[in-house]
Hints:
Layout: E1 3-6, E2 21-22, E3 25-26, H1 27-45, E4 50-52, H2 64-76, E5 88-91, E6 115-117, E7 121-125, E8 128-133, H3 140-147, E9 159-165, E10 167-169, E11 183-185, H4 186-195, E12 198-204, E13 210-214, E14 217-221, E15 238-242, E16 248-252, E17 256-261, H5 264-273, E18 279-286, H6 289-304, E19 310-315, H7 316-332, H8 337-346, H9 356-367
Parallel strand pairs: 1-4, 4-5, 5-6, 8-9, 9-12, 10-11, 12-14, 17-18, 18-19
Antiparallel strand pairs: 1-15, 2-3, 7-8, 13-14, 15-16
Amino acid sequence: MTIVFAADVHVGNHRVFGGDVDAGVNQRACLAVRCLREAATRAWALRSPLVVLGDVFDDDRPNPQVIAAVQAAVTAAAHAPVARSGEVFLLAGNHDMTSAAPGHHALVPFALHATVVDVPRVISAGGVTLILLPYRPGPAGAYLRSALVPGALGDGHGKRVLGIHAGVRDAETAPWLRDAEDAIDVDELVDLAREHGISHVFAGNWHERRAWYRHGVRVTQVGSLCPTGFDDPSPEHGLSVLRDDGQVLFESVAGPRFVRVASQEELDDAVERAPPDCELYVTWVASGSDEALRAAQSAEALRERGVVAGWRLLRDGAAAAEQARDAARVVRRASTLDEALSAYVGGMGLPPDVPPGDVLAACRGYLS
């Protein structure tokens, strides 16, 4: 059985380049909904279930019109000429939740449209046992160890696949993320998977797409289906598709992309690398009046030609303030003080000779 995985859609009326509002849903929210609709359509075309690994919404109180738009996206492909043979599974992520209590989240209205996973759940179909664990606050490793017990993992027949909402870290993870509670070391995750006969792990939560293959276990950090803004600059956004043969394929999904540039060369490069049919939003950081004028003329010419969807100009001082606002937005998504501190330090834009890990260690020392 083929399974399509997505994560971190973060549907909401984001303010930056929010655009026009139609019946309570702005342009940014419409773009995120479009990405989710595309994910559902591709899953149904493959006659496969779609599993969204948390953070369907950007917060736990979306307005009714935004909820209705997401419901329409989830069910739209049912009217396609391809017969529906799968389901949609929506894991509760930290952004969707008000608390970890069952039903205390923004996904409750989807009970008639999808399988909402707010408690650990095991689904067996098509020779696959799918183990889905929603987000829980606290150390991710301890939670996964407590949830993965032999009696709760199905009958053991066929391939076992685990879906979670937790970051996955390794030696290349940014220093300010390595101690985040909502993450687990990839080696620890692989050991847990091997212990319970799990061949594949798919994780939501962190927005950068990563993949590992260790000791016979494939671990995929799916990454965000739709970027949340200039604090989410990863170039790859889309779906992870688990095929019958065990291979995992990445499929890009067009949507908004956000880039910061400081020169015409950087803008040209961003335009060249942007996926087809995406909406490219640009922040150009200029250092002087003459450069600002040239930047505005160039960016507006690209907008008029439809190459970029929107642009804005920041002077160096404004760019520093914008970085602080980006860091604050990341902090608001944290569920613990340490997560918030790590996120803020990571978004500070420190000089190249100042290691973020040293700043983070010093801050923790002051708070201890």
